[in-house]
Amino acid sequence: MCGIAGFASLSGHPVARRVASLNAMSSLIAHRGPDGSGQWSDDAGSVGLVHRRLAIIDLTPAGAQPMKGANGTVISYNGEIYNFVELREQLSDGWTFQSHSDTEVILAAYAKWGERCVDHLRGMFAFAIWDERNKKLFAARDRFGIKPFYYTVQQGVFYFASEAKALLPFLSEVETDADALSEYLTFQYTIGKKTLFKGISALLPGHLLRLAGGDVMTSRYWDVQYDVDFDRSPAYFERRFTELLSDSMQVHLRSDVPVGGYVSGGLDSSLVALMASKLDHRSRDAFHGRFLEFPGYDESGYAKTVTDLADMSLHMVDITAADFRNSIGDVIYHLDFPVAGPGSFPQYMVSALAAKNVKVVLGGQGGDELLGGYARYLVAYFEQCIKAAIDGTYQSRHYVVTIESIVPNLGLLREYKPMIKEFWRDGLFADLDRRYFRLVDRSTDMVGEVDWRALNKEAVFESFRAIFNNQDNVRKEAYFDKMTHFDFKCLLPALLHVEDRMSMAHGLESRVPLLDHPLVEFLATVPADVKFMGGQMKQLMKTAYRDTLPKALLQRRDKMGFPVPLKEWFDGELKDFVLDIFGEQRSKHRPFFNSDVVLSSFGEQSRFSRKTWGLLSLELWHQRFHDRAAEFRAMVSA
């Protein structure tokens, strides 16, 4: 786990201020790699690579980067290739290894298979390889977007980095991308390659990038396929799930340093921690953040139940309003731009705690999207069941949960009444895509605060619909798979963005064993009525691990992610703090926003609204990056 950056001239001519450019990028991603740094440039001065090292595998200098192979290829790489041991053995006949690192395994794989080397890599990765023989820069990002890769082309030079902030010195102006802003306001994340920084793009998950002959081209090398298997029994799926997850856990525990675990009190992180403690005696440290100021936010009891069972040491941090005031600016800085919900803040605090004890931590990201863990799936299914019962259209038993089976579990929706009210406000029984769009739309209570005339909300819906209704890998009638597929392709990368930035802000590597591609590919074949049996969220996991997970967790009906008492804070201790931010003179002149309306409507939103969070994040982002753009440009202009 590290930080990478670099440049390549489109024309092959020397890049101006290349030393200053490499130094600036290295400085801006220094937090990602506290164990070492390196730079490399070709003789012509047209290509340069930067690396910041967090040493996890092969702690010796032989594992340092940028790493040059005997064939002249040079790599800067961030991530972990969990099957590097097996690949090394397979590739040893054609490559003389000089290190024990997974980095060199990628160089050897590229030498043997070229760009198709990515098909053989199992893990999380973002890398760039300079191929001197073919005068080509080849880059790739892992299948799920666990590791980041951003790029921009400025004045004939291609720049890339692990974090978008490292590209800001090369922009003539720091501007907001209106299309990306429309997506962020709608979902609180973007759903394409555009970022909130105009001119900076993200290499999408499962994509390759090549720069050759002056052209920058991207292409997809992997996608999840929902080829549902209706011929197997639930028992088969349970058995195969446990086999694949066990295998994933074993390779995810490969490390030359001890591995800890996040334990939130939910099923996913708890299961990962319990399995890790059994497979590796070094996995004895768990980390949890709690809120004690208000009732309903403390989940530490569930976390303790798990760690007691696993004989792990539970390290906890009590998170307060003062922590929010002191840290939120740093959270936004490390995120690069606002993304996902307020969970980034407690994640930042817990990662700081974990980094004091370990260098690697396991998390449970991916379980909700893969196994059906969001309450909105139940809301949408409830409506679909009502419609099917009224119309008498139970034609596909594989895709419709009967109303008889779902009624006993409607108590799970008690805390989601505002969501249901909004979902059914208008358009009841409308098209499936419009119904789900309303469920994930976070902007419905942002009316006067945002100048929607300057944005294109309809284009956001069309982009959403193209993904939601994509039949290349999801069957037309598979409503459950459509929902989980959209979240897998769009929400999950946003959550992984948070996972990466909040851990790397403290030089901590975060691994996500549920996102192992053999496991993900298998879960895409499991029928909805197995994953969601009886309307029970994550039923496959609950059944498969009923003898592993504590009953207290299996019977939980109140899990709400990583809840943060923002409503209580913003109504109380942090009210003046937030009003002062929105009341500053510079905030009154932001494009697309009306700060006066923000101030006048402050405090009106419900506990579940993310309006203030979303707008506050944007304002802090403007202050940290837009208002200080000159500081970034000065890093290379001197």
Short description:
With about 650 residues, the protein is α+β, with helices and mostly antiparallel strands. The chain contains 25 helices and 17 strands.
Percent helix among the residues? 40-55%
Q: What low-confidence regions span 5 or more consecutive residues with pLDDT below 50? A: none
Structural class: alpha+beta
Q: Report the mean per-residue pLDDT as an integer.
A: 91
- The N- and C-terminal alpha carbons lie at a distance of 31 Å
Strand order of the largest sheet: 2-3-1-9-8-10
Number of helices: 25
Tally of extended strands? 17
Radius of gyration computed on alpha carbons: 24 Å
Shape: globular
The proportion of residues in beta strands is: 5-15%
Q: Main sheet, how many strands, which sense, barrel?
A: 6 strands, antiparallel
Overview of the molecule:
This protein is α+β, with helices and mostly antiparallel strands and 638 residues long. It is built from 25 helices and 17 strands. The protein has a six-stranded antiparallel β-sheet with strand order 2-3-1-9-8-10, with helices on one face. It has a six-stranded antiparallel β-sheet with strand order 4-5-6-7-11-12. Strands 15-14-13-16-17 form a five-stranded parallel β-sheet, with helices on both faces. Strand 8 (150-154) and strand 9 (157-161) form a beta hairpin. Helix 2 crosses helix 3 and helix 8 packs across helix 9.
